[in-house]
């Protein structure tokens, strides 16, 4: 491992409270990413030296926002951020399953390879979001990062969110302009959580108001 990645790993591990075993699985993931990156170009090359903070820790922070959630769906997973990081972390929860939707076959193959090497409980869907989401069953949490403007994410996820799924979308500074249409709809409760990773933006948390009322009665894992 290069010295800069090693320093970044130490920085990220200070941001994340994870077990030694989880950190070791993340290291397997990072090693595979570095190996595949040279031939498959899976993430922006300039972000690789900071893979631990920019990608692993940035993804990891979502788990604390839904500590009991077991079934997650990540739209446009790319090289697995945030969905594969979440899957590694929640691997020991009974019923844990993370759907990774990624239409690029080379990225989907990478996701399967990391899942095989780490035992992460994922289902990789090498298809388009709009074709997969309508067929999904009950989902606790829907995620996306660096995929599309919030109204589009919302359009893709609306059926799930209306049914009680918690939306957690990692966004950059563009969120100030994007959030208006969703924020104005009284059917949805939306708020913003400051990212713990340096230099990144905010996490948009969306829930249907009716579903929030249902949750008070105790019928959801995504608290
Ligand atoms: C900019 S990358 C972000 C990847 C990852 N979420 C991250 O933050 O590193 C967006 C990914 O979404 C995938 N994607 C875009 N539109 C999609 C769609 N309609 N269905 C499935 N995958 C899609 C692309 O192939 C790409 O890998």
From TrEMBL:
Chief place of localization: cytoplasm
Question: Which cellular component terms (GO) are annotated to the entry?
Answer: cytosol
Q: Where in the cell is it found?
A: Cytoplasm
Q: Where does S-adenosyl-L-methionine bind?
A: 76, 81, 129-130, 145
- Source domain of life is Bacteria
GO: which molecular function terms?
rRNA (guanine-N7-)-methyltransferase activity
Q: What class of enzyme is it?
A: transferase
E.C. numbers: 2.1.1.170
Q: Which reaction does it catalyse?
A: guanosine(527) in 16S rRNA + S-adenosyl-L-methionine = N(7)-methylguanosine(527) in 16S rRNA + S-adenosyl-L-homocysteine
Record's keyword terms, sorted = Cytoplasm, Methyltransferase, rRNA processing, S-adenosyl-L-methionine, Transferase
Give the protein family.
Belongs to the methyltransferase superfamily. RNA methyltransferase RsmG family.
HAMAP family according to UniProt: 16SrRNA_methyltr_G (MF_00074)
UniProt function note: Specifically methylates the N7 position of guanine in position 527 of 16S rRNA.
Q: Mind telling me what this protein is named?
A: Ribosomal RNA small subunit methyltransferase G
Which organism is this entry from?
Lichenifustis flavocetrariae
Give the gene name. Answer: rsmG
């Amino acid at each position: 491992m290069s010295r800069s990645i090693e320093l970044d790993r130490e920085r990220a591990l200070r941001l994340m409270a994870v077990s030694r075993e989880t950190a070791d699985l993340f290291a397997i993931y990072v090693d595979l990413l570095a190996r595949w990156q040279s031939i498959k170009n899976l993430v922006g090359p300039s972000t690789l030296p900071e893979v631990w903070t920019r990608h692993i820790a940035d993804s990891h922070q979502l788990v604390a926002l839904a500590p009991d959630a077991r079934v997650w769906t990540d739209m446009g997973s790319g090289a697995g951020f945030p969905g594969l990081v979440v899957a590694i972390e929640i691997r020991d929860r009974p019923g844990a399953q993370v759907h990774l939707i990624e239409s690029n076959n080379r990225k989907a193959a990478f996701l399967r390879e990391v899942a095989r090497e780490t035992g992460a409980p994922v289902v990789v869907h090498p298809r388009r979001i709009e074709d997969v989401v309508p067929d999904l069953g009950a989902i606790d949490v829907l995620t996306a990062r660096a995929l599309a403007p919030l109204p589009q994410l919302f359009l893709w996820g609306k059926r799930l969110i209306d049914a009680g799924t918690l939306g957690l979308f990692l966004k950059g500074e563009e969120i100030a302009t994007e959030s208006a249409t969703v924020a104005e709809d009284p059917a949805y409760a939306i708020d913003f959580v400051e990212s713990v990773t340096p230099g990144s933006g905010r996490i948009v948390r969306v829930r249907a108001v009716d579903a929030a009322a249902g949750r008070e009665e105790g019928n959801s894992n995504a608290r």
